[in-house]
Amino acid sequence: MVLKRFFPFFFSDGQDAEINAFCEKALGFVPRHSEVYRIALTHKSLMQEASDGHKINNERLEYLGDAMLSAIVAEVLYLKYPDKGEGYLTEMRSKIVSRRNLNKVAHKMGLFDMLAYDHSNIRINESRTLEGNALEALIGALYIDKGYVFTRKIVVERIIGRFVDIEKLASTNWNYKGMLVDYCQKRHSRLCFVLDRTERQGHDRHAVYYVHAEIDGKSMESACGLSIKSAEQLAAEKTYNQLTRNKTRNGQKVNGQPQA
């Protein structure tokens, strides 16, 4: 059987009622082999090791699902925007498959309640970032279980069709660091990002970076991420949103529009 070739160390014909119920409710189908979906929802913080040495977690399925999702989204955008060039299509694909967007989609699907991870080593705010990874792994599991044609159908109709507003994403600028830089330049303010500390977390002691934004020497919003770049982007987003909310409360407008 094909599934045994991919998961020779973790295969059973038993049914998993919880997985089946979730897939039927969220995605409209019942798995043939629920075990592979259970692996897709198992974070490496709860990683098990099979008797033959294989690591049982969702990282390999995440890799596979990422490739499947990218290809499917590329095709959807190619057909949807026949007059758009490569640059536009690439940017749109990046927005759809971004960790930020996938986390939101996965949360809307109710994926968070299905995740298995080590609660003692992962904080609540960090656990929310696991959802997008698990969604990719779930797509990888779907491909293994049902094949590409069925996977494409589910992704297009039940994931993108129900949970992704492509037109809204097209008009959304997510480069908050660039927006904050522009905001500060227009006001001749000095912006910098400061690395506060680095922590090692989880069983594999992965690095988590904590940074905060500073404007003219004043500490602004802080954030953490699995890379300095992602932490800076999140801190920039929180700072930019805070600044623009303050302007709105004062009856002013931003982004180059007239200000009172």
Describe what this molecule looks like in 3D:
By secondary structure, this protein is an alpha+beta fold. It has twelve helices and five strands. It has helices at 2-6, 17-27, 34-40, 59-80, 86-97, 99-109, 124-127, 130-146, 148-163, 166-170, 176-186, 228-249; strands at 48-49, 55-56, 191-201, 206-215, 218-225. The strands form two sheets. Strands 3-4-5 form a three-stranded antiparallel beta sheet. The chain has a two-stranded antiparallel sheet with strand order 1-2. β4 and β5 form a beta hairpin. α4 (59-80) packs across α9 (148-163) and α11 (176-186) crosses α12. Residues 11-15 and 253-260 have low confidence and may be disordered.
Main sheet characteristics: 3 strands, antiparallel
Shape: globular
Approximate strand percentage: 5-15%
List the helices and strands in order: HHHEEHHHHHHHHEEEH
Distance between the termini: 69 Å
Total beta strands: 5
Number of helical segments?
A: 12
- Side by side, the strands of the main sheet go 3-4-5
Quote the average pLDDT.
Answer: 84
Relative helix content: 55-70%
Q: Which stretches are low in confidence, meaning pLDDT under 50 for 5 or more residues running? A: 11-15, 253-260
Radius of gyration: 21 Å
Structural class: alpha+beta
